[in-house]
Amino acid sequence: MRADDAPPIPAALNALLLVAAMGAGALCLWAASHAEGLWVRLVAAGVFSYVNNTVFSLLHEATHGVLHPSRRINDGLGRLAATFFPTSFTLQRAFHLTHHRHNRTAREQFDYLHPGDHRFLKYAQWYVILTGVYWLFVPLGALVFALVPGLLRRLRGPGTRYGEQTGADAYLGRLEDAPGAAIRVEVLGMVAVQAGLAYALDLTLVGWALCYAAFAVNWSSLQYADHAWSPLDVREGAWDLKVAAPVRWVFLNYHYHRAHHRHPQVPWLYLGRYVDERVPRPSFLRVWLAMWRGPRPFPEQTK
């Protein structure tokens, strides 16, 4: 589908959702830091894990240029959304578009064990994703790139089994041409917003960490469930997962991931129109539970 043929971008709705989700997230951070009852703090962290996924989904829209029809406003809102992840918008866009180019290729088959794969590394990467530790690498990676850009480049591993198996070669290779000055400004903005929230809301480290730990698990659990054991095809290699409607609404139809990969220029509001009901649609819960058993042998090995 050409961008000109895509449905219109719901710009006003997107802006309203971004403000509402960030406001709700700030309220959750405050409650997790100041509520007297532990159960209230846990509920606040749980709610934060969902509303911050709304913010992330809008950041995802911005990386594809479909958050707002104006490129300047689209990128500005994307940078704002990125501060709540927190990360650099430019880095996120570079990495996410790299994912679209390499989806389900040999560089993104984390769900399969290939001959010659380093088993410990494969399993470590897999469970880092499942447990939410994967999230931690995003803000830390942005900080490292801003402060010591050469370090991430040295971790790329071009031409090595490590670089191919982990996807580091493809993803960190994008940093060779990344606009370092813009990224450093965005990282400074992300630190300023997080520090501003901590000061204005008098956040505690425990309350902040509780919210972001819950978000990390919730966000990370979906980041490969929508691809695990899907067809090995760049465009078709994703699932339109079945999930409770309220959850799908909060995630802004992110679970319609096959539809998104086939039509990346379609705004989230209309993705349901592009779901092919003739194609298997597993439930998110079924795929997520199966993932805990670990990567599977590559299909050719079982023939």
Automatic annotation (TrEMBL):
It comes from the Bacteria. Keywords: Membrane, Transmembrane, Transmembrane helix. The lineage of its organism: Bacteria, Pseudomonadati, Myxococcota, Myxococcia, Myxococcales. The keyword Membrane applies. This is Fatty acid desaturase domain-containing protein. The chain crosses the membrane at residues 12-32, 126-152. CDD domains: Membrane-FADS-like. InterPro entries: FA_desaturase_dom. The keyword Transcription does not apply. Pfam families: FA_desaturase. Residues 39-275 form the Fatty acid desaturase domain.
